[in-house]
């Protein structure tokens, strides 16, 4: 499964990069395949391990912010691995 999620601290002002970095750090240290862009961080793995990473990423931001917003989208497709790369490669192949 691939989960794309965004953790946003609320009540800390407009500059939230240092808070978001704490969430991304948790994801990167998890060892699971992941990718971060301007809007979301995507992480790939089994249900329990991915959701644990999301939970810990939220907790890292929650430890520093009075309120946290979480947006999450999941692609649950048993048997598929390397979806983070394969899905993009398919689109690129069609664009070529």
Automatic annotation (TrEMBL):
An example Gene Ontology CC term for this record: cytosol
Signal peptide limits: none
UniProt superkingdom: Bacteria
Family annotation (Pfam families): Thiamine_BP
Chain ranges of the Thiamine-binding protein domain: 3-92
UniProt similarity note: Belongs to the UPF0045 family.
Protein's name in the database: UPF0045 protein
Annotated source species: Streptomyces roseolilacinus
């Amino acid at each position: 499964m691939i989960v794309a999620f965004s953790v946003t601290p609320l009540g800390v002002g407009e500059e939230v990069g240092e808070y978001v970095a704490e969430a991304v750090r948790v994801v990167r240290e998890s060892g699971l395949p992941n990718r971060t862009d301007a809007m979301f961080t995507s992480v790939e793995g089994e249900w329990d391990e991915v959701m644990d990473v999301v939970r810990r990423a939220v907790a890292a931001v929650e430890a520093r912010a009075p309120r946290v917003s979480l947006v999450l989208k999941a692609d649950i497709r048993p048997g598929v691995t390397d979806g983070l790369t394969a899905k993009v490669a398919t689109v690129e192949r069609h664009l070529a």
